[in-house]
Amino acid sequence: MAFTALLLPFLAAAQFSLSGKITDVQTGETLPNASISIEKTALKTVSDASGNFRFHNLKAGTYHVIVSYIGYQQLQQSVVINTGQSLNFALKRSTVQADEVFVRATRTGQNSGFTYTNLSKKELAKNNLGQDLPYLLNQTPSAVITSDAGAGVGYTGIRIRGSDATRINVTLNGIPLNDAESQGSFFVDIPDLASSVDNIQIQRGVGTSTNGAGAFGASINVQTTTRQDTAYAQLDNSVGSYGTVKNTISLGSGLIANHFTFDGRLSRIHSDGYIDRASSDLKSYFLTGAYYGKNTSIRLNVFSGSEKTYQAWDGVPEDKLLAGDRTYNELGLMPNGDFYKNQTDNYIQNHYQLLFNQKISDKLSFNGALHYTQGSGYYEEYKIAQPFAKYGLTPIIKGVDTTDLVRRLWLTNYFYGVTYNLNYQAQKNLNFTLGGAYNQYRGQHYNRIEWTQQSTNITPDYEYSRNNAFKTDFNIFGKMDYRLGNLNLYADVQYRRVYYSFLGYDYNLNNVQQSATLNFFNPKLGLSYQIDPANNVYASFAVGNHEPNRDDYTQSTPSSRPKAETLYDFEAGYRTKQGVFTGGINGFYMLYHNQLVLTGSLNDVGAAIRSNVKDSYRAGLELDGRIQIAQPLYWSLTAALSANKVKNFQQYLENYDTGQTVLNQQFQKTDIAYSPDFVSSSEIGYSPIKGGEIALISKYVSKQYLDNTSSNDRKLDAFFVNNIRLRYNFSTKAVKNIGISFLINNIFSELYEPNGATYPDIEGGKVVNYNYYYPQATRNFLAALSLRF
Asked: What is the structure's pLDDT at 227?
């Protein structure tokens, strides 16, 4: 005691530090820009990008630390300082959240009965060097990505569990992104979106109720820029192979007057593409402003994108590929052997989102959104020997019935509506959500002639056809979460009504305006059991329904009109988080009725042609995990093993000699097109120095078939691709962060094609295959410099 008393003056005069990390108590994710202050002092700081904070030069004593983060309950804790302290703070989400609440109703929680993957802004930024958003999702389970131009810039695609983009529901802040008619998500229309994304959740299978078309392979829920309390400016610049250049500038005001924030981004991306004449010129901006009150938050997002891409959607013919001409692009070829320079796709899309959140009481909160999207554009193409009659033209020269011409096929569309969610925390362990949306779509399809080789009697920009489409989409859902000890029960019921008016063929093969009305009922049940704080098991059953898309309708007659699809999805799995290892295993059985499977063929604008099959299924196992082998070394791994089958498939082919369509062959059980039975990814990362990292990123995809016959004459070979990523981050007094990145893609120059198309027919009594492929780039690189002030 006497010795301690003697030391007290020295302890009081000594200087100590307090450091730690701020995380989410449920997910364990770090919380950057959290506010940490010490009561009754002027000491205040914010956590860095990794959630870390530090106070220096603290005298010995007792301090009252206050930690706050938007959307989380404030945490206060007394700390006794008599030596250097390291103290972590785990925050609980508040009943009402400012930004996160806009997406919460369409997402699943940490210990739910559904399978999901969360990606943070930090994880996305590692690979965001200019390639399209699907490329940033490549390392998630069951994902296969494709690029028309071969290098990840321009038109790209993603398939999850063998389902393409028309069957993957995508929302931005809970607002549908999928095109209402084609049902695809065209990220090329909003280039560099990833630079304005805060986080993404991917739910595989049907998942929880969301807005927009049903999720038949997965749903991708994107949350854009959220609150940042400190002002910043950031410059991101990339250069790479095939003339690829990306320039992005981002600015943020930080929190003004304790209530307002403003953020903005301006981007441009150019690439010549790996494929011949597959260039892309992309531009975009993103502006957002928010108000944060005690019980109210409002955010306005305004963002836009424009794209001009040389068409590369037909792929490379098989004979050219076998001859070694992997970059051949025939689109735009004119009779004189030259290529038409303006064989391009051009589109501008503008988005407006007004997001509103109101805390009504400690138990009740409401959030809603108004949205409006306007798009307009065309694709221009050179067409050879077109009949005058097809375009309603009168030839000037007698006996000349055809002409070369240049045409523009236009689309102007409008998508607008409202989404809403009412959340009621009835008890600490019981939560209700009532939500839904009403959206309208108007599409104007019109086509013009820009030039004809032969003289005609038309005026400039002659419009030879026009038709309009109209669609309404209403849904309402109710969700309940009930926790009973370690058992969590989940129930979800959705009703959805779709009305669609379109121009299509009638029984007499005349184009007339038609309509379709569909009503869907989608129930979902889930349960999970928390074995202990580190281990969780779960199971769920969900029903999904999905309407046909525009091409399914317009290319059929009322007697052959495609049916809506129904999916019964069974999921069960196990998750664990134990020290250095986190991971899980998930089993799924997806039973389809009237699934619209890809035939393998494409229409004249590169869209997939589909047909109903009565009975089909997907069944498999998915694994994902991450192990911190040592402090500087980690390994992340995913694997998906599945069987994807069509029962009783009938193949019809056109007999070229007779012009008739005949039944070629009947199959008892075949593989669903574009559905590999094994997909895996790996990322091994090593940090040799502070702020530095080298990572080996690998992807394996087994063989895929181009149609539903399991024919080796119509397939995509398996491929194994490896990339290397180098990163180094450091700071100076003038620059908060300097990031240098270098990405070497396909380091071993694997020759592979993840996508293709097939057009078999019967000639001379034999089946002849016309296959097309989308070759991906051999070894290429991207280098980036990021400066944050």
From this structure: 87
What region, left, alpha or beta, does residue 710 occupy, with left being phi > 0 and alpha being psi -120 to 50 degrees? left
The whole-number average pLDDT for the span 179-197 is 94
Instruction: Please answer whether residues 704 and 674 qualify as being in contact, where contact means their C-beta atoms are separated by less than 8 angstroms.
Output: yes
DSSP string, 565-621: EEEEEEEEEEEEEETTEEEEEEEEEEEEEEEEEEEEEE-TTSPEEEEEEEEEEEEEE
Going along the chain from its start, the domains and CATH numbers come out as 2-91 (2.60.40.1120), 101-224 (2.170.130.10), 232-788 (2.40.170.20)
When pLDDT is averaged across residues 114-126 and rounded to a whole number, the result is 92
Residue 588 near residue 204 (C-beta atoms within 8 A) = yes
pTM: 0.87
Question: Using an 8 Å Cβ cutoff, are 260 and 275 in contact?
Answer: no
Beta pairing, strands 771-773 & 487-505: unpaired
Closest CA to 670 of 701, 704, 689, 647: 647
d(CA 91, CA 89): 6
Question: Could you report how far apart the first and last alpha carbons of the chain are, in Å?
Answer: 51
DSSP character at residue 319? H
Q: Exposure of 647 by Cβ count < 10 A (0-12 exposed, 13-18 middle, 19+ buried)? A: middle
Instruction: Say if CB 304 and CB 284 are below 8 A apart.
Output: yes
Judged by DSSP in three states, 194 sits in helix
Note every long-range contact of 332-335, with CB atoms under 8 Å and residues 24 or more positions apart, other chains counting: 332/277, 332/381, 332/382, 333/382, 334/382, 334/384, 334/404, 335/384, 335/404
Q: Measured in whole angstroms, how far is the alpha carbon of residue 2 from the centre of its chain?
A: 67
The amino acid at 572: A
104 vs 592, residue with greater confidence: 592
Please compute, for residue 690, the number of CA atoms within 13 A of its CA located in the half-sphere on the CB side. Answer: 2
Copy the structure tokens of residue 86: 């390291």
Q: How far apart are CA 729 and CA 683, in angstroms?
A: 19
Nearest to 217 by CA among 233, 203, 231, 227: 203
Contact between 216 and 567 (Cβ < 8 Å):
yes
* Residue 394 parent element (H or E): none
Burial 205-228 (b: 16+ CB within 10 A, else e): bbbbbbbbbbbbbbbbbbbbbbbb
Q: Where are the alpha helices (DSSP H) in 458-579?
A: 550-554
**Euclidean distance between CA atoms 678 and 672, whole angstroms:** 13
Residue-wise pLDDT tens digits, 692-703: 999 999 999 999
Rounded CA separation 545/784 (Å): 43
